[in-house]
Amino acid sequence: MIASAPHYVGAIGAGTVTKLTRNMVGYMIVHSMAEGFSMAVKAGLDPLDLWEALRLGVVGKASPLNMLVNQFLPGKYEPPAFALKLAHKDMSLATTLGRELGVPMRLANLPLEEMAEALGRGFGAQDSRSFLKLQLERAGVEIAVDPDRLREAVKAL
Fold it and tell me: Which CATH architecture group holds 14-155?
């Protein structure tokens, strides 16, 4: 089952694209969690204690999809909820810790590189998700959902 209720996503074929995207994104998320957990456990943390701490913070309280509502979907990265330059600092510290522990940080290194490029382009004071604009640029797409339409979708949750 893809969802608990039917939702129209477009013409014939759009459902398949939605299913493939849902599965791909889900596996990417759990893979990133495995990378984070392996680093933390190698640093001496208990995996259940870490899970409980993550569950109580932003990652646990909000769906990654909901984290796209204020910046990514409307294409608005100012004012920042959290500045990119600060997110880059945190990612740098985390990937350095991973390297020091001998933990492969393949997934974490990609956003770190993207953040560094975005900083080089002057995005440092924008929202931490502003580095996502680089992906959209490379793909040749623009995402800027109408604010009224977005509000209605969020309200329906």
Answer: Orthogonal Bundle (1.10)
